[in-house]
Structure formats: structure tokens, C-alpha cells
Amino acid sequence: MGSGTPVALDNVLSAAHFFAGKWTPALKRNQSRDVLRHLLCRLYGASKGSLFRARIRASHADLGQELGLSREWVCKLGQRLQASGWIHYRALRLPDGTFEIGVFSAGRTLKRLLCMLLGYRKPQHRVNTFSHSFPLPETEREKSFSSARKKQLERERQLPSPAVLRKVPLLTTWLGRGKTDVA
Q: Helix or strand or coil: residue 90?
């Protein structure tokens, strides 16, 4: 699954709503999750579902108007979302001292959530690494296999011990088949 694999928007929204309150308790009882939901919808639409690299340009005033909130409150809620890692925001300062329209993108926490939804896993490190020895040459490998096979055949040809034969009388009868004395 590459970074371009889309996840359904409703899955992202419901997971973000749930985990925003769980991972960042400060966002549980305020309108930050509403701003996050709105930004997720806009990012999703702009990137056609690829939220990892999605970017949108938006001003706080426009977001406030769309959400029915003041620009100042949207700015404060955006700062909370950025501080908790849900979004990344940057706006360049212009030479006259004002700021350019900001660019929103997915933050580390949102990317963590997306990885969880896509089923990514960290590679597991082995505690005991395999030995870096070279494989045996074919002749030595055949010798070791043939000697192991010889030992196995010898064990199979050995008769069971007398204690085992006393416990299993039918085995004694079976082993004695064909050795009948013809008189």
C-alpha cells in the first residue's frame, strides 16, 4: 500500500473524531474536532483521498466563515490542533509584515492515524539474528545427510529392549512371525 492509497473519508472522519479525544484529551470538549473534521474534508477533496501529502491553502477568516466561528477562535483552535500534531500549518511573512494565506497539511498524529487505518506496521527487529555462515559445499552436505540417514536406519533395525517386549506381548508375536519351526 503506497502513500497514495485512499482510505474512505467516513473511516478517516470517525477514527479522527474518536482518537482526537483519546490521544489528545484537551481536544475532547471543544470545537477543535469540528475544525479538524472540516480540514480533513478539504484535504481529502484536494488530494483525491491521498491525505499523506495533501495540502490546502486557506485563511483563518475563510475557515471561520465556513464553520460559523470567528477568525480569532479558528486561529486559536488551529494552534491547538497544530500543538497536538494533528495538522501542520505554515504561513510565510510578507515584506510588509503581514502573513500570506496559510498552507494546511497532515501532522504527525494524523499520519499515525492514517498508518493505523491502512494497516502499516513497523518492521520487527529480530532478537536472535541468524548466523552469517556460508552454506556447506554439496559433497560435505551429502556426507552429513548420508551419515544422519545411516544412523536413522541403524536405530530402525535395532530390536526393542526386553522391557518393552514384556510390556507389549503382541509385539513379540509380530516380530517372531515367519520364524516358525517346521517339524
A: strand
Neighbouring CB atoms inside 10 A of 63's CB total 21
For the chain, which domains are there? 9-118 (1.10.10.10), 147-175 (no CATH)
**Sites in the chain below the pLDDT cut of 70:** 1-5, 121-135, 180-183
Predicted pLDDT of residue 105? 92
What was the pLDDT predicted at 108? 92
Three cell numbers written together for 155: 536405530
Residue showing cell 536405530: 155
Helix (H) or strand (E) holding 92: none
Closest CA relative to residue 109, chosen from 3, 11, 12, 7: 12
Contact, 24 vs 81, CB < 8 A? no
**What is the C-alpha to C-alpha distance for residues 77 and 86, in angstroms, rounded to an integer?**
11
Q: What is the mean pLDDT of the chain?
A: 83
